[in-house]
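User: Hi! I'm a student and our assignment asks us to look at how structure tokens line up with a sequence. Could you show me two examples?

Assistant: Happy to help. In each example below, the sequence comes first and the structure tokens follow. Example one:
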Amino acid sequence: MESRLAVTRDDLSRILSGSPFARIYNLRLDSFGSGECTLVMPFDEALERPGGIVSGSVLMTAADAAMWLAIMTRLGKDAMTVTTGMTTAFLKPARKEDVHCTARILKLGKKLVYGVAECSGDAGSLISHHTITYAVMDPR
């Protein structure tokens, strides 16, 4: 993978703070590198489903957002990309803990981007695994 970054920490932080869906989940940028990004989603009781576990759709959103920003590290902040597919395996419940989600690009093509994301709890135990495909949109 190319080591040059197409965005700065400030760019990614501004994108997160300016995205209404990211604000709902209070997503915070933890770290990033070329083709990868880690977000933290602080625990909030509003994100729980019945039974006291963080909703699966919330984990999927965190994974998707992490991949979105990981792609920007390679293509830049103005790249127009959209999720075309996600397969998720829920491995254990998240209970009253922050979720840390790391996304990594596996293949960056001209039209499609393939990657994986993993969400873990505060103690580092794996909560969910996601395979994600994005389409790179024509800027027209």
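Example two works the same way, sequence first and then tokens:
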Amino acid sequence: MKKAVVILILLFYAIAFSSPQIGNDKTAKDSALVEQLVSIVTSILQGKDYSELRENISSEAYVIHNNTYESIFEVLENPAKRESFIEVKETIVSFVHLWMPDDQNNAYMVLETKSPDNTKRTWHSILFKFGEHKKWQILSWHKS
């Protein structure tokens, strides 16, 4: 009988201390970060006024698109280049994967977008850094 009670007590403590703690949910934090970063990216891709997002783009940010390497600001400020970079307003995000190193000062996102009629798929790989204004900033963007 004593042996069974001891086993039950040990089992109870093992379950109680190994269960997830409320308020320490890493998955919820990660999903909020993914939402935030995807929102920045889709706002730019949908052609929204990027002046509001200027703090979310590093001053040294560049984009690789159509086999060219350019400043992301040059692409977004030049109407012809911007036209080729921007996607339709109804762009659908169909795949997202975010990876962060342990220091959590950088994030690397792979994102797939597709047109509403599913005729065009585009892959994006975007490197973010946690910038000087305590905001996530795009550092590099490759669109293919």
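Here is something you could point out in your write-up. The chain has a mean pLDDT of 83.
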